Amino acid sequence: MADRYLSFATSRVGGRVAARLGLPRPARLGRYRPGQPVARGPVVLGHAADPRAVKSLRAVLDRCGATVQEHPGRPGALLLDATGITATGQLAAVHAFFHPRIRSLLPNGRVLVLGSPPESAATPGAAAAQQALEGFVRSLGKELRHGATAHLLLIAPGAEEAMESTVRFVLSARSAYVSGQPLRLAAEVPAKVPAEVPADWDRPLDGRTALVTGAARGIGAAVAETLHRDGARVLCLDVPGQRDELHALADRLGGTALALDVTADDAVPRIAAHLGEEHGGGLDILVHNAGVTRDKTLGRMDADRWHTVLDVNLAAVERLTEGLLPAVRDGGRIVATSSISGLAGNAGQTNYAASKAGVTGLVRAFAPAVAARGITVNAVAPGFIETRMTAAVPPLVRQAGRRLNSLGQGGLPVDVAEAVAYFASPGTGAVTGQVLRVCGQALMGA
Ligand code: NAD
C-alpha cells in the first residue's frame, strides 16, 4: 500500500500546497548505495571540556574520506565530542556549538554527539550532565527537518577505538530511518575475538554465512538482500507455504533455501543439517526475523492467538538461539527482531507486545552469556515499516503510524535491514545487548 501522501508532499506542487495548508511535509529520505560517500557534505567537528574521543573520531573521518571544515556553508554533519563534560555548567558548550550551525545543516544531514555513559560518571554532577545529552539529542531529533537525524553515541572509557562501524552507520544513509536515541560502545571487547576492521567497508561480510528466518518477503527479504550485498552467503528460511518465493530469492542471491516452520519440533536439527550440507557447518550471523501478529483486545483473544504469537515471535527465538549456538562461530552475530510495540505496548497487541518485549529480555540476557566467545546479541525494534504486515492495518491507524514520528513517514524494509547489517558487521563487536529502534523516532514509546 503506497504512501500517496509522501509522493504528494515531496512533489513540487504538493510541497507548496502542504506548506500553505500547514500540513506535514515529510522529506524524501536518502538511502544507501555502495560506493556512496559516508557523509553527505563537509563535516564540522567540535569538542567540549576535556574530550576523550575526538582524536579517534577525526581518524575515522579521515578513513571515511570525509572533509572536515570549520565553517562550511552547508554542513552535511555536525559532530560534537562531549565525552569530557563533567559538570552541568559545561553543557553551555553544547548550545554554543550547535546553535549557530544547526539551521544550515544539509537535507538528510546528521547530528552526532559523543558522550560518556552516565552510570560510569565519577560524580552526580557528571552523571547529570551526561544524561542531559540524551534529552538534548532526543529533542533535536524532533526539531530537525528535511530528513536530517540526530544520534548519541555513549562511549565507555577505553572503547574509543571501537567506534568506526557505528560512526559509519549513523553518518551514512544506512541509518536513514533511525534517530533520537543512544547507542552504547562497551569497553570490554572480548580479548579472544577482538572487533575486526573489515578489509572493505562496502563488503564487510565477505566469506560469512548468514541465516535469516522469515526471509520470503517483507523485512526478512530485505535483510537477506542487504547481507548478500555486504558479502554474506545467505541461508533463507521461511514456512513451507512460501517455498516458491523463498527459492526465487535464494537463487537470485546465490544462497540456499530451507522451507521450515521455526516452531517445528525438529527445527534446530534440520537447520544444523542444512548448514552442514550446504554451508560447511558453521554460522556467522543468525537473524531472527520471522514474526506474526494475531491482534485482538485481550477479552476477545482466544488461547490460539496468544500461543501462536508467543511461540513464533519469542519461544522459537529462544530455542533456535540456544540450539544453534554450538554452530555459531566465535565472533558471530545474533540479531533478533523486537518492535516498538514491545517497548511501548499497543492496544490489541497484548500477545505481540509481550512476545516482542520478551525478545529484548532475551537479547540482554544472552549478550553477557556469549561475550567470552566474541559473539554479540542485539535486537532491532522497527516502528511502522511499509510491508504486507502493516498494509493489513486499518487505514486510519496506518496513516497515524506513518505520520506520528519525527520523519513523518513509514520506513522501508531496507531501513531495518541496514540496522541488522550494522549489527552483523565484524566491526560492531563493541555493541551488544542493545535494542536499536528503526522507527523514524516514533512518538509511540518515545
Ligand atoms: P511479513 O508478514 O511481511 O513477513 C514475515 C515473514 O515471516 C513471512 O515471510 C512469514 O511467512 C514468515 N514467518 C511467519 N511465521 C513463520 C514461522 N513460524 N516460521 C518461519 N517463517 C515464518 O512481516 P514483516 O513486516 O516483514 O515483519 C518482519 C519482522 O519484523 C517480524 O518479526 C515483525 O514482527 C517485525 N516488525 C515489523 C514491523 C512492521 O512495521 N512491518 C514493525 C515492527 C516489527
UniProtKB/TrEMBL annotation:
Highest taxon, organism lineage: Bacteria
Enzyme class per UniProt: oxidoreductase
Ketoreductase domain segment(s): 208-388
Claim: Oxidoreductase is one of the keywords in the record: yes
EC number: 1.1.1.100
Annotated Pfam families: adh_short_C2
Keyword line: Oxidoreductase
Membership in a protein family: Belongs to the short-chain dehydrogenases/reductases (SDR) family.
Protein name listed in UniProt: 3-oxoacyl-ACP reductase
Organism: Streptomyces johnsoniae
